[in-house]
Design goal:
It is globular and about 65 Å long. By secondary structure, the protein is of the alpha/beta class.
């Protein structure tokens, strides 16, 4: 179900939002929420990010616990499952009852479901809210937010997500947003590899690649990675595909293309978009 973005102040009781993780995605998200009138408090393990966060209009918390005590909702943008588990182990028992914790990190769905179950007796609603479209969309405030959680929690959180998301898709219960992000990543990395192979082959046959790309964008080969050719850093490709393979193993399903794509992504990243070097 797609939710309609709404004003993040007038339509929600949430006024104070914490963000743990002020990296490439966290910082623009912080800025969008602050500009839309929310009170934003941030923490990052790297205290050197404090100046950048404060320039965005947000406050700084020296520790996650200092942040947790002051916020009605907390967005978590840490890197890995182990980081998320360690952080929630610190926060549970400190967070006020009724706090919403939204995990933007890309992790295993099982991790989200286990943490949500652990949070429930404390009166904490933990949901997953993965985002897609990358850093450029984060800068522009046009992310796609997948969200997994109970309808009432999703409704309460939607105005906050609308501050930095052009589209919000409620895809199911807790953990569903991680599944949606895995599906997104499967298709995205496959397309990025296919784009490289198609354009590299065409260039070897003397075709003007820019002109060809314009033509492909109005053909049946059109895809998001081709529309945004040259932008993807591939920073998280390996981690994304590792999670997909873990999920496939647990589900007892073979995903041969995903396995091949993981290996191709590993070699592609250092020479992405360098068509003269592809396949050499």
């Amino acid at each position: 179900m797609l939710a309609s973005p709404v004003n993040c102040i007038t339509a929600s009781a949430i006024k104070t939002v914490g963000v743990i993780g002020a990296g490439r995605m966290g910082q623009p998200i912080i800025g969008h929420m602050a500009r839309r009138g929310l009170t934003v408090l941030s923490h990052d393990i790297d205290a050197g990010k404090r100046g950048a966060v404060e320039q965005l209009g947000a406050g700084w918390a020296a520790t996650p616990t200092a942040l947790a005590e002051r916020c009605e909702a907390i967005l978590i943008c840490v890197g890995y499952d182990r980081d998320l588990r360690e952080l929630m182990g610190t926060l549970l028992g400190i967070l006020p009852r009724g706090t919403i914790v939204a995990v933007l990190s890309t992790v295993h769905p099982r991790t989200i479901r286990e943490l949500a179950a652990a949070a429930r007796p404390h009166g904490i609603d933990l949901v997953d809210t993965t985002v897609a479209r990358g850093g450029h969309a984060a800068d522009a405030g046009t992310l796609l937010a997948f969200i997994g959680g109970d309808e009432a929690v999703v409704e309460r959180l939607t105005p906050v997500l609308s501050c930095f998301s052009a589209d919000i898709a409620h895809v199911g219960g807790v953990g569903a947003a991680q599944v949606a992000k895995a599906a997104n990543n499967l298709v995205m990395w496959a397309c990025l590899i296919a784009n490289h192979e198609a354009l590299a082959l065409s260039k070897r046959f003397g075709i003007d690649v820019d002109r060809l790309r314009e033509a492909l964008l109005i053909s049946s080969a059109e895809n998001y990675a081709l529309r945004h050719w040259g932008e993807n850093t591939m920073a998280w490709a390996e981690d994304d595909m590792e999670i997909v393979q873990q999920m496939a193993h647990e589900a007892g399903i073979g995903l041969p293309q995903a396995g091949v794509n993981r290996e191709v992504c590993r070699t592609l990243r250092p020479k992405r978009f360098k068509l003269d070097e592809y396949g050499v």
